[in-house]
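Our working data are protein records whose layout never changes between entries. An example says more than a description, so a record of this kind follows.
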Amino acid sequence: MISKEKYENIGKIILDAAFEVHRELGPGLLESVYEICMLEELKQRGLYSEHQVKLPVIFKGKVLDKEFIIDVLVEDAIIVELKAVENLLPVHEVQLLTYMKLSDKKLGYLINFNVPMLKEGIRRKINGYL
């Protein structure tokens, strides 16, 4: 079980990494470019991260031949969904919450890099309690 403080510390590092990527690249690139740069930045900051993590679809207790894909999973605890879209929509937030619920992760970030100021493109979501 991860403490609230540890979640907060990792979250701060994730956001610092995202701000650095945005500072270097700016808006207007493909999501895949931001993803690979985020992975490198997280690695440089000492965090273990995986990308394109498969999350199986389970229906009525049966694993189906379909899967969701988590953009970035940090320290096997925090989901980071990346976007490069004109506007974040409610469906993007629902996507993150769905991934969090299905994987039983407590904290997630939705980060849209296609904005002039990154703080406008960040949503933090909690699944239950930290």
Q: What stands out?
A: Residues 107 and 126 are 5 Å apart (CA to CA).
